[in-house]
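Technical annex, item 7. During the second reporting period the consortium partners agreed on a shared format for inverse folding records so that results from different sites could be compared directly. Each record opens with the tokenized structure and is followed by the designed sequence. A conforming record, contributed by the partner at site C, is shown below for reference.
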């Protein structure tokens, strides 16, 4: 009787279970399956932990304790099995990547780990490749800097000069010097080491053996080098497309102060007559007869007034013209844009690029007014302290495209 009553209860319960919605069945089955999977993974993780670090999921889980003891008793040297060290390194790398992605590490820590150089230990690690020398690393860094300069130039040209004509005329290359033996084109930027670069090109051409012995007059007026505008259009384009083209630039305000000191603070009949006389006549309040006659003694403030005047009494000069107007970097794709501030390293880099003789170095001496101290940032600041804030701002504005294209910082903090 009891058994019959129990069976009736069971049948009633089964009918109620069968009437349950399918969603309830799905939830129950999902819960049971999840519990079984969790128990299985927990057992698997314990087994892997017993195997130790570096074990692979596909390896046998039945490795005997006796086998492990035999391996420890008879160690195999890396020389007999060279892949042992490699597998250790791979395992360490995988472990490091997993650590980087773990939730315990913050985003900032992860970024630092990714950007920090990998730490390697030389002990018991055999390597077939030689270590990178400091010189090779330096060359690699310099190459990256030079490529960045070229990219900055392209970006600025695309932003500010996209509407210019793409036709290259002889006038665009009138300051570009040709050296055919090593297939080099050099755009001259005065006050940026141009005299020493011309000496080097003359030696490369085979017309002299020692750049240090070439005097200033020989370099500039000796007829050793030809400018590209003296060739016909076909020859111009052929050289532009096949020769290595380079330019060296300088911080714009340092360059203009250097030009002023060279041309107006030292004896120079040509510049004093051509520029000094009209500058003094127009900008000096009460000029003396002697100053008007000789053009000597132009002050830096008077020179700045001339530079900023939209109606100058005399035109611009190559020594203080904007560098982008001399060499047209938005028309001509230069292979190297060097900087005067890092002349020694970058000149050597270019000479190696064109496979010049290893004994050839760019001269570093100052052939005009050698007793004068080279114009520096401190000297530039001293000269610009003689003019008003607005004049400093306007000079910066005048050379603004040079600052953008050649990626120089603002020379004074109070400029906008």
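Designed sequence (site C submission):
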């Amino acid at each position: 009787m009891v058994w019959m009553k129990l069976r009736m209860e069971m049948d009633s319960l089964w009918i109620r279970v069968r009437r349950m919605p399918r969603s309830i069945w799905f939830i129950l089955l999902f819960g049971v399956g999840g519990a079984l999977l969790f128990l299985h993974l927990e057992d698997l993780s314990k087994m892997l932990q017993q195997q130790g670090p570096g074990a692979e999921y596909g390896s046998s889980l039945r490795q005997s304790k006796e086998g492990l003891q035999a391996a420890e008793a008879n160690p195999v040297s890396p020389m007999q099995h060279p892949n042992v060290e490699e597998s250790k390194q791979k395992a360490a790398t995988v472990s490091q990547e997993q650590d980087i992605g773990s939730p315990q590490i913050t985003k900032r820590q992860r970024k630092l780990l990714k950007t920090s150089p990998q730490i390697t230990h030389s002990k018991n690690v055999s390597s077939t490749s030689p270590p990178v020398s400091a010189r090779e690393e330096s060359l690699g860094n310099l190459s990256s800097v030079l490529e960045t300069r070229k990219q900055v130039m392209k970006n600025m040209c695309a932003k500010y000069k996209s509407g210019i004509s793409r036709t290259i005329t002889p006038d665009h290359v009138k300051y570009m010097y040709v050296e055919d033996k090593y297939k080099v084109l050099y755009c001259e930027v005065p006050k940026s080491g141009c005299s020493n670069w011309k000496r080097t090109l003359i030696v490369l051409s085979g017309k002299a053996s020692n750049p240090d012995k070439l005097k200033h007059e020989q370099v500039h007026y000796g007829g050793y080098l030809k400018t590209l505008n003296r060739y016909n259009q076909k020859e111009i384009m052929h050289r532009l497309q096949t020769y290595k083209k380079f330019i060296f630039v300088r911080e714009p305000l340092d360059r203009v102060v250097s030009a002023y000191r060279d041309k107006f603070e030292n004896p120079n009949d040509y510049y004093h007559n051509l520029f000094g006389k009209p500058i003094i006549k127009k900008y000096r309040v009460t000029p003396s007869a002697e100053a008007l006659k000789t053009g000597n003694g132009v002050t830096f403030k008077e020179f700045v007034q001339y530079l900023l005047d939209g109606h100058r009494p005399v035109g611009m000069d190559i020594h203080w013209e904007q560098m982008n107007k001399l060499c047209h970097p938005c028309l001509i794709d230069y292979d190297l844009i060097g900087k005067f501030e890092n002349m020694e390293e970058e000149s050597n880099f270019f000479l190696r690029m064109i496979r010049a003789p290893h004994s050839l170095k760019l001269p570093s001496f100052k052939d005009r007014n050698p007793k004068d101290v080279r114009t520096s940032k401190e000297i530039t600041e001293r000269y610009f302290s003689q003019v008003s804030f607005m004049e400093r701002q306007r000079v910066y504005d005048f050379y603004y495209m040079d600052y953008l294209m050649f990626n120089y910082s603002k020379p004074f903090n109070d400029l906008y």
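The first strand starts at residue 176 and ends at 179. The beta strands are 176-179, 184-187, 226-227, 244-249, 336-339. All partners now use this format for quarterly exchanges.
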